[in-house]
Amino acid sequence: MDGAKEVTDEKIRTKDNIVAYETILKERVFEEFGETDTFTQQFEALTTNPERVTYMYDNMVRYDLLKGRYWKDLKNEQAARRHKKKGDNNFARGDIPSALKHFTRCLMKAETDELRGLAYANRSAALYKLNMYKECIEDIDLALGNTYPPAQRPSLLHRKKRATQMLGKSKVPEYHEPTPSIPGKARNRHTPHAHCVKQVEVGIDEYSRRRVLATTEIPAGQFISVETSMVNVVSGKSDLYHCHHCVNVCYNPIPCLTCTQVVYCGEKCGAEAWYDYHQYECNILSPLKQWVGYCKSLLLGVKMAFLANLQTFCNDFTQYLLPMENIVNKDIAKDNMFLALATSVIYYFIRDFTHFFSKKNIGASNFDDQFKDDLFRYLHMAYVFSAEITEAKPIFGDDPQLPYEVVDIEKQSFGLGIYPFFMHFRHSCSPNVVINYYGSKMVLRTTRKRLKGEELFVSYGPHYYYHEQSDRRNFIWRLFYYQCRCLACVDEMPIMALFEDEVRSENYVTVAANAKRCFLEGSVEIKAALMALLDAIDTEFTMEKYFYTTALWYHYDLVANRRRVP
Ligand SMILES: [Zn+2]
Ligand SMILES: [Zn+2]
Ligand SMILES: [Zn+2]
Questions:
Q1: How many angstroms separate the alpha carbon of residue 248 from the centre of ligand 2?
Q2: What is the rounded average pLDDT of the residues 169-198?
Q3: Which of 101, 210, 361, 495 is the most exposed place for a label (fewest CB within 10 A)?
């Protein structure tokens, strides 16, 4: 679970990337005027978002800071051939997962049908080796449709025949355990956009703060909700294994035929993405990624701005997100120079390098200001409300005598999503609800017993197990502009990870060994025992509680991520 720390650290760093541009701008102002106070005061005196964005935009133009930020993302046949060669070499060496990656990269960069055909054909061989017969057959069909050399067709057809036979014989493995679902009569009808149980309710307290409460006693380990993201982006190390539209795991994705940045699980997702937002995004995604660094939330905000063209998104937005926006501290906009700056540059990209403005009838006199306002708000909401979508990869040790060494879990973020129900939870550095992902579906479960009326908390990132109190408070302050007053912060709990060695008791070894089995063989019922242990501990901060909570979380992570290419 060290990954939880990495994910949070990354989120802290990403803001710095954008702030760097603010620093450059201020340096230019200082060079000219010998001070920056006037510049800042003028910004702070502005009263509307469009004014703030225009102010930053004009200054970026004034100091020539927008020039050279855009380039056209072009396919590159030579680079694609290099990836194919690397794929072939890796395949010959038996490193199939690496071969798979390079063939997909080749497909993303390839300019011609010929090269795409070869890459699909070779990827089908890699997929065959990984026993992914369904995917293998799909790739062979794609290769045959891409002017594949007639002389080599027979061998490809032979592989298809073998894959079809194997597919008939073997059980198709799933990417993860079946996603939990809630039977109709247990479902809460009053929570937004989620399948959520009746034992919780969403409330707003006297300060208009959102919160989630238990309506009855809830034991530890209780499944609370399963939620689909309203909007999401895929980014990071796993971007080759996830559809950039539906975010599902996919080992044989197809590329966008125009840019080099996205892949889809099939033509349906590709077409939907194009219609909904990618027709605008395609031309600017590559420079945009460079510009915003790893700040995925800004990419998410841009996508929301494009999706706002669609009635369905507008309906969802009005129903689920708008009420949340009203609860966010409105003052953020006033002093948030960084957000205005990011908006101004993204606005420039969209206006000058996409056909979005012409589609939206730029003739409407107030459209420009309206769009600046929308974009600012979407970027802000994406920044504050998005959740990291993660996947867990177990790391197995070498020593069979030490089974506990096998369940270190590497947690990687592969995207960001907006989950309207999740947004209603408040943060605690000692949360009583954990998050696991089944693909892109967010599943929430309790790790503590809750009594009627008690609040349920998630962690927005910081955790007292891993993060010093000052780091936790800094994180929360920088992102959400409030002081964390959770139990762990008030009680000044030390970092639990310091005591990790002591925690590796005999019990831990047993649980860890079971967790490994559950990964390899399917679900093993270790949950019940853990939940009983958790329920038996009343004290909030004890080593045992830390240990059992961790084990429970491991267990859920493992069942949700069973099938992974290493
Ligand atoms: Zn898809
Ligand atoms: Zn594209
Ligand atoms: Zn706290």
A1: 18
A2: 76
A3: 361
